[in-house]
Amino acid sequence: MRKQAILLAAIAALGANAQAPLWMRDVKISPDGSTIAFAYKGDIWSVPATGGQATRLTSLPSYEAVPVWSPDGKRIAFSSDRFGNNDICVMDAAGGA
């Protein structure tokens, strides 16, 4: 039931203009339950668990996927091919370098 609610919130956050989000993958909820991170079309996004506007956290031409929250919820680790192979990268939960 909880996974269904998370998935529905992430789909709703993509906006009314979005068609079927066939590229949305790897939906993960933050340790405190307040934010959802997910991969969509090769970028990492976040959205409040209560719904609202999704925020793109990565925007490079590389392919990012599989976001994982740190135990304290301050960082997100993810897979990226930006260096030519799949490496693990870490960024602040709000995005950035």
Largest sheet: 4 strands, antiparallel
Low-confidence stretches: none
Strand content: 35-45%
Query: How would you state the average pLDDT, rounded?
Result: 83
Question: What is the spatial order of strands in the main beta sheet?
Answer: 1-2-3-4
Secondary structural class: mainly beta
Overall shape: globular
Rounded to the nearest angstrom, the radius of gyration is: 13 Å
Alpha plus pi helix count: 1
Q: Ends: how far apart? A: 35 Å
Please count the beta strands (DSSP E, at least 2 residues each).
Answer: 7
Describe this structure in words.
It is a single chain. The longest helix has 12 residues. This protein is mainly beta. Strand 6 and strand 7 form a beta hairpin. Helices cover 12% and strands 39% of the residues. The protein has one helix and seven strands.
Feature tags:
97 residues, 3-stranded antiparallel β-sheet, mainly beta, 4-stranded antiparallel β-sheet
What is this entry, summarized?
It contains 1 helix and 7 strands, in the order αβββββββ. It has 97 residues and is mainly beta.
Produce the secondary structure layout.
Elements: H1 2-13, E1 24-29, E2 35-40, E3 43-48, E4 55-56, E5 64-69, E6 75-80, E7 87-92
Antiparallel strand pairs: 1-2, 2-3, 3-4, 5-6, 6-7
